[in-house]
Amino acid sequence: MKKVLFIHHGDEAGGAALSMLYTMKGIRVRGYQPIAALRYPTKKLHDLYNREGIQTFETKWIPFFLTSSGNEGKKYNPLMWKAIFDAWRMWETAKRKLIAFIEEHNIDIVHLNSVCLSNAAIILNEKKIPFIWHVRETGPKHKGRRYQFIQDSLLASPNVIFLSRAEQKSWTGDNKHGTVISNFIDFNQFNSEIDTTTILQKLGIPSNKKILLYVGGMKNFKGIIPLLKAMAIVKQKWGNDFICLMPDVYIEEINKATRFQKQLLAEMKKNGLQANCKMMPFNPNIVSLFASCDVLVFPTLVPHFARPIIEAGGMKKPVIASDMMCIDELVIPNETGYLVPPNDENALADKIIHLFKHPEVCEEMGLKGYEFVKENFEFNIQMDKVLKVYKSAENFIELKV
User: How far are the Cα atoms of 137, 167, 176, 339, 345 from residue 325, in angstroms, in the given order?
Assistant: First the structure.
């Protein structure tokens, strides 16, 4: 059984950690043994993988370049220069530790889970260690030195996976280097026939309420502020009979809230939306929430592959999402959902109200979304593509460190 080291760049929040989990489970049933190296370990992240029988390791020393995204960063930000200095200072130590870890655990293939692990990719290329580089971020608009650094590393790496055509183009231009393999869902886990009566009772939500679902967490770039502004308009025009489920939008101690969290709470209070927002802790299993909602809203301000959109399709739910690259590969406009201009609360509110008024449109869009996702994002189809990349990595060179 070939052993695969997955390196995760972030914490448990967001889709990257879950996508990595699903990929690990997919390759495991096909004869590989996955283990996880956690660059930013948390108890929740350990638990996420350990519950599935996947061994985890804390590897804070793994080479990391500035931020957990592909953005350039600001030249005059002292933290950026400190990060560059720290990366340079720790380079040789990190290299030795990474190679030693691979040797100690008899790793056959490394799977990098983000574009920001470009430093690790350089080491793996240099040592001829087979690896997969899973790019899940869109290239920045500004093509500065950091972009060029990452692009050079990508083009030098033989086995790169992009989640969308737009992401591939944003990093490699017309080169078409790498393979586009979108995230996938296991339809055995997505049962659209779930009885939601008990679920709603546990959540304390009356059955006559219209329900939105937002799964972007407490991140500004996910568009939660425009969503709250849109909800204020919906409340004014439609009435108060709706609730937005918000997993991973939860503040345990208000007095320790960040500036953005305080802004979010102030926006809720200003528009009297506290009763319309069902804030909940992070939950990796939100199938029941998809089953309970009428509409998924995904008002992101930054283009990226949106797993919740294909999960909504798997649960026969319509989508209202931002009209931008990557997202437009996941939604068939006016058929599986609506695309609205990003940061446009009026357009978002109009589509929410329209779907609230027309449940038959919700049902029709949900069915078409299911057919679209089943054809393009089904687990086995996408995993077969991933395995081809793995075979390519295995054939690249025997592991000799």
Answer: 12, 8, 17, 11, 19
Least confident interval from 211-215, 253-257, 311-315 = 253-257
Q: What share of the chain is helix, strand, coil (3-state, %, to 5)?
A: 45, 15, 40
Residue 384 CB: number of other CB atoms within 10 A? 12
What residue has token string 């990190």? 94
Q: What are the C-alpha distances in Å from 268 to residues 17, 237, 239, 265, 350?
A: 29, 17, 16, 5, 19
* Alpha helices (H) in 11-75, listed in sequence order: 15-28, 43-50
* Residues 6+ positions from 1 with CB-CB distance below 8 Å: 31, 32, 33
- Tell the residue number behind the tokens 């040789």, with chain if given: 92
Structure tokens at 321: 């999402």
pLDDT digits (tens, 9 = 90+) for 184-241: 988 888 877 888 888 888 889 988 899 999 998 888 999 999 999 999 999 999 999 9
The DSSP element (H or E) to which 6 belongs, if any, is strand 2-8
Which pTM was predicted? 0.84
Rounded Cα distance between 249 and 224, Å, is: 10
Structure tokens at 184: 């996938």
Compute the distance between CA of residue 63 and CA of residue 87 in angstroms, rounded to an integer: 7
CA angle 338, 340, 346 (to 5 degrees): 115
Residues 172, 148 contacting (CB under 8 angstroms)? no
- The H or E element spanning position 4 is strand 2-8
Helix axes 359-376, 307-314, angle to 10 degrees: 110
Residue among 82, 34, 83, 93 at smallest CA distance from 59 = 93
Is residue 186 within 8 Å of residue 22, measured between CB atoms? yes
